[in-house]
């Protein structure tokens, strides 16, 4: 632990660097007014903080900037208690979810844009996996003489569509009968465990049902990653001076498996914030991640987070992620 004076100096340096992105000198810390000590005393304390790994000096004549260790101490011990989002941002979140309707994929895409707009960082929303959802409704619609469309609405808001190839022109009556059979068997079941539909006694109707189940099974066997929606990736370009750093960050954001694994790993370690090298993804060594799960009926359903430079405004990012994750979970629960 740091003593009160060192902690106050570290807080002043972190807050100023977050605001300006410029190294912070002892004169500024002295003018900040938290400490009734001389600039020379502050300079000596800053040198000790550097020696202990909380600050670093990018240039000999420059002020100092926080290290990952310094940011971690700030987040864990010094960050001001979150007062939540600004009223204008809270209103923006309320209006967004009041108008959010339609297919889940579009809403999650829009949610990533909302979160990015609230924080000015890249935002990531991971869609709920199918295996945690149950089937709420089933529709089978004929599209032609030998093609039908199976539409499932899941409890997590996902709308799944499957093309069903028919072996013969069975007619609308049998398609309707097959849809009714599917609905009576599938509604309430988990999407990952549909089982076998009992025979109706009519061979043509059963053939349509079997084709629909086969189409679902074929889709489930595909190695498809969790859907990831990234909003505001272009905002990262303004956060870094080095073009190579920006290129590395944007490349990672395009790799869904890496993004999902990163967010899950942070949560699995019991963290809500991973700073710099803490998350172990080398191209993101100059970035921090703030993450939270969103839940439906008390079950962890998906994940949201923001990715920004290590000098991000942590209290603001934590507040935005917390509010949006809570509202998203509530919205999905209400259907």
Structure characterization notes:
- This protein has 335 residues and is an alpha+beta fold.
- It folds into 3 domains: 4-78, Winged helix-like DNA-binding domain superfamily/Winged helix DNA-binding domain (Arc Repressor Mutant, subunit A, Orthogonal Bundle); 87-129 and 226-334, Beta-Lactamase (2-Layer Sandwich); 131-221, Enolase-like, N-terminal domain (Enolase-like, domain 1, 2-Layer Sandwich).
- The chain is 46% helix and 18% strand.
- It contains 11 helices and 10 strands.
- The protein has helices at residues 4-20, 26-31, 39-51, 68-78, 87-99, 104-119, 172-186, 203-221, 243-253, 256-268, 314-334; strands at residues 55-56, 65-66, 122-126, 135-142, 147-154, 159-165, 228-231, 273-275, 287-296, 299-309.
- The strands form 3 sheets. It has a 5-stranded antiparallel β-sheet with strand order 7-3-10-9-8, with helices on both faces.
- Strand 9 and strand 10 (299-309) form a beta hairpin.
- Helix 1 (4-20) crosses helix 3 (39-51) and helix 1 crosses helix 4.
- The protein is elongated and about 90 Å long.
- The two termini are 47 Å apart.
- The model has no long low-confidence stretch (mean pLDDT 86).
